[in-house]
Specification:
With 487 residues, the chain is α+β, with helices and mostly antiparallel strands. The protein is built from 18 helices and 11 strands. The N terminus and C terminus are likely disordered.
């Protein structure tokens, strides 16, 4: 006779958010005070019905329900207001494609982002990181967000194209992205197409930015077709377009869609993550001190980090992970139900929009006590619980998890180590407590800080590996590990 106790089925709470305006729904609240609106939703249930314009939608407010959605991409596919509009920018690339087309697209692009390739990019990342900060002078202001966008544009363009984009094109990508992320956000929370056909200055800027970004990609592809083959991502795509690869030949439009998808997802979110990290470190001197102690020990001679240093940059990676928890650039995503289904006991019709927010999940006190506190020590080896690892999802989960999640972590860790090892950044008076304004991504979009020189402590007085001030265990390789939606 079995003594096993049957597992009790969880009872989920469902509800509807108050304050629905005719036609606009919750769009006003979402646009004017998005984070406050998000934070108000869990009080109404684990799954909360909202209105995006006149359309019904459901916000998932619990990490387990979010995993149910993300682990069933055949029922909850990429779609909804966000991805419908991203398709105008990225076409049918890896981020926006529907589930049936996803496997072949991912298989084509995955080799460039395997761990063995990621470590090969180390010199590239540290070289560009050192270059971007070498002209910063002590006592002078630094446009941090602009500098980080320049850095990430150079890095991803070298990964994709072998060469970095020239300074003029890099600046144009940065400016166009600023207009696109603002335009995409309002089109997501108030999905009324007629509003965006009006000839307003904002609508014209948005359309112009789309045209220019597509033109930049077309120019890069045309230039490569006139030149020699190269062993990079664009080379892989053009080989596939000629039918020389293992699978079926892809079209010229698919080459374009893949390239613009990887370029733009590799620029914006990484730049905002790095800018947020420097902003948070300046507001939390103890976390900054531990970072500097580690860098002065691991990189005692002031050298740039290499692949062998990555396992020793324990606190540095924890700073990146905690930044992604505290200020995740990807803060709001949508899915669409491909059939009538049930979620949290609620029947959802086919075509229903389902939303989830890493920001909301990462700031849930039941998962992360004192969630507003920036504490990289949460992620030291042995510290995070299984529930916390599961609740952390800046890069999504399931088979649509970001293709470049590990590349993103390595890039951010190396860039932070390289720059923080050389320069210290301080907030301008009155700027430290500014709240980021979410667009389709979230982060400090126009952060300006003051540069200070870094004085390196001798290695003997620094914290040696394994003696970090915060509690830790011996396996540095797991520091800041993530269940880390770009693709």
């Amino acid at each position: 006779m079995s003594c096993a106790v049957p597992e009790q089925k969880r009872t989920w709470r469902t509800g509807t958010a108050p304050g629905i305006f005719p036609l606009l729904g919750h769009g006003i609240a979402f646009y004017r005070r998005p984070l406050a609106f998000l934070n108000s939703l869990p009080a109404h249930g684990d799954l909360v019905e909202i209105r995006l314009g006149p359309q019904r939608a459901w916000m998932v407010c619990h990490p387990e329900l979010t995993h149910q959605v993300l682990m069933d991409p055949h029922t909850f596919d990429k779609g909804g207001p966000l991805y419908d509009r991203l398709g105008k920018l990225m076409g049918d690339g890896l981020v926006t494609c529907r589930q049936p087309a996803h496997r072949d697209k991912r298989r084509l692009l995955q080799p460039a982002f395997r761990p063995s390739h990621v470590t090969a990019y180390t010199d590239l990342v540290t070289e560009e990181s050192a270059s971007v900060c070498e002209t910063w002078q002590a006592g002078r202001t630094v446009p941090v967000t602009e500098a980080m966008t320049t850095l990430t544009t150079r890095v991803i363009s070298r990964v994709l194209l072998s060469d970095s984009l020239d300074d003029t094109t890099t600046a144009e990508v940065r400016d166009c992205l600023a207009d696109v992320v603002r335009g995409l956000f309002v089109r997501t929370v108030v999905p009324i197409d007629a509003l965006f056909r009006l000839p307003t200055p904002a609508n014209r800027r948005y359309r112009h930015a789309l045209v220019r970004l597509h033109a930049i990609i077309d120019s890069a592809i045309a230039e490569r077709r006139r030149g020699a083959d190269r062993d990079d991502v664009l080379g892989t795509l053009l080989t596939a377009a000629r039918g020389d690869g293992e699978g079926a030949a892809i079209t010229g439009q698919e080459v374009h869609d893949h390239l613009i998808t990887l370029l733009l997802t590799g620029v914006e979110t990484q730049a905002l993550c790095l800018a947020a990290a420097f902003s948070l470190l300046a507001r939390h001197p103890e976390a900054e001190r531990r970072l500097h102690d580690e860098l002065d020990t691991v990189l005692a001679d002031g050298r740039r980090p290499g692949p062998d240093d990555l396992p020793r940059l324990v606190h540095t990676r924890c700073v990146v992970t905690e930044t992604l928890r505290h200020s995740s650039p990807g803060w709001l995503f949508t899915r669409v139900a491909t059939r009538e289904t049930e979620l949290a006991g609620c029947r959802l019709p086919q075509g229903a929009t389902v939303l989830y927010s890493p920001y909301l999940l990462h700031h849930d006190p039941s998962s992360f006590p004192d969630p507003e506190r920036f504490d990289p020590g949460r992620w030291l080896p042995g510290r995070p619980t299984a529930e916390q690892r599961r609740a952390l999802m800046p890069f999504s989960a399931g088979n649509r998890k970001c293709l470049g999640d590990e590349f993103a972590m390595v890039e951010a860790t190396l860039a932070l180590a390289t720059i923080a090892g050389r320069r210290r950044l301080r907030h301008l008076p009155g700027q430290a407590e500014q709240k980021p304004r979410p667009g389709i991504t979230m982060g400090p979009r126009s952060l300006v800080m003051v540069c200070e020189p870094r004085s390196h402590r001798p290695a003997a007085t620094s914290l040696a590996p394994g003696t970090t001030a915060a509690p830790r265990t011996s396996d540095a390789r797991t520091a800041g590990d993530h269940v880390v939606d770009n693709t």
